[in-house]
Amino acid sequence: MPIIYTNRGALSKWDARFLALAEHVAAWSKGPRKRIGCAIVRPDRSIASLGYNGPPRGFDDEAFLAMSREDQHKVVIHAEDNAFRQMAEDER
Fold first, then answer.
1. Which residue in 19, 25, 37, 80 has a CA-CA distance of 20 to 30 Å to 56?
2. How many CB atoms lie within 10 A of CB 83?
3. Is the pLDDT of residue 2 over 60?
4. Is the pTM above the cut of 0.85?
């Protein structure tokens, strides 16, 4: 169960949808321990980017999963960082 620091009932319909989307994206994480998702949303409610925690794009998944926990921590990027990097790539 995710940790939520707000009353879900107090969220707007759209905020609840985007939170659910971030939770869904978290399932895409390659990390076996923590799965974190991120949805970056524009003021017009369109989705700017999605991200999850794990190795950077292009990193070999099998190699990542074979690494020690300590070595995994050296390469993992946060969900938010991943989403911002994705936005930057899309804008190129």
1. 19
2. 23
3. no
4. no
* Residue 72 to residue 12: CA distance in whole angstroms: 37
pLDDT at 68: 92
Beta-carbon contacts of 1 under 8 Å, excluding residues fewer than 6 positions away, are: none
Classify 62 as helix, strand or coil: helix
Going through 7-57 in order, the beta strands assigned E by DSSP cover 37-41, 47-52
The closest of 53, 52, 51 to 72, measured between CA atoms, is: 53
Q: How far is CA 72 from CA 33, 67, 81, in A?
A: 11, 6, 16
Task: State the number of CA atoms in the 13 A half-sphere of 30 facing the CB.
Answer: 22
26-80 pLDDT, tens per residue? 999 987 678 999 999 999 999 999 999 998 888 998 999 899 989 998 999 999 9
